[in-house]
Amino acid sequence: MGHRRGFSLIELVVVLVIIGLLAAVAVSRLGRMVESTNDAALQRDLQTLRKAIETYSAEHGTYPTAANIVPQLTGYTDAAGNTSATKVDPFEYGPYLREVPPVPTGTARGSRGIAATRGAGVGWVYSEADGSISAALP
After folding, report:
1. Cα separation of 134 and 138, whole Å?
2. Residue 18 to residue 48: CA distance in whole angstroms
3. Confidence tier at 2 by pLDDT (50, 70, 90)
4. Which DSSP letter does residue 3 get?
5. How far apart are CA 28 and CA 120, in angstroms?
6. Whole-model pTM above 0.85?
7. Which of 34, 73, 35 is nearest to 54 (CA)?
8. Residue 3: what pLDDT?
9. Using CA atoms, how far apart are residues 5 and 118, in angstroms rounded to an integer?
């Protein structure tokens, strides 16, 4: 009787199937983890934007305008909401953000634009009437 060397084809197939199943489970969990991380980033960015809008409102007595919200939040403003890139009299308020954060998830992922309605390049949808903001997700 000779000694057996190596593995049979069936043993190799069983090992490959087990490895495949383990890989499928790992990829599935990784996908859920990435989605959860993106959702947390979205909530953090929404909180940052809402805080900036509320601070602007507290100092100006009105919400930023939909047409000028980005420069009003990222630049210096006067009491009327006019903007300036530098802090010179009368532009004494702000900035409230360094930059608008990109949307971290969904079809608008990476977009930084803020507008009253969804559209190309719009990551955030803003309502001037009540200062609400949300991600431009479907």
Report:
1. 11
2. 45
3. low
4. P
5. 31
6. no
7. 73
8. 66
9. 66
Both tokens assigned to 78: 């006067």
Is the per-residue pLDDT at 28 higher than 60?
yes
What burial letters (b/e) apply to 2-35, b meaning 16+ CB within 10 Å?
eeeeeeeeeeeeeeeeeeeeeeeeeeeeeeeeee
Of all residues in the chain, what percent carry a pLDDT higher than 90? 71
**Beta strands at 83-84 and 76-77: parallel, antiparallel or unpaired:** antiparallel
Task: For Cα atoms 131, 137, 138, give the angle at the middle one, nearest 5 degrees.
Answer: 125
Cα angle 82, 109, 113; round to 5: 15
Q: In what helix (H) or strand (E) does residue 76 lie, and over which residues does it extend? A: strand 76-77
Tell me the C-alpha distance between 64 and 61, whole Å: 10
Task: Annotate 111-130 with DSSP letters as a single string.
Answer: --EEESS--TTEEEEE-TTT
Residue 71 binned pLDDT confidence (cut-offs 50, 70, 90): very high
Name the DSSP letter for residue 93. Answer: B
- Please report, as a single letter, which amino acid is at residue 99: E
Distance, CA of 38 to chain centre: 7
Q: What is the DSSP string of 19-59?
A: HHHHHHHHHHHHHHHHHHHHHHHHHHHHHHHHHHHHHHHHH
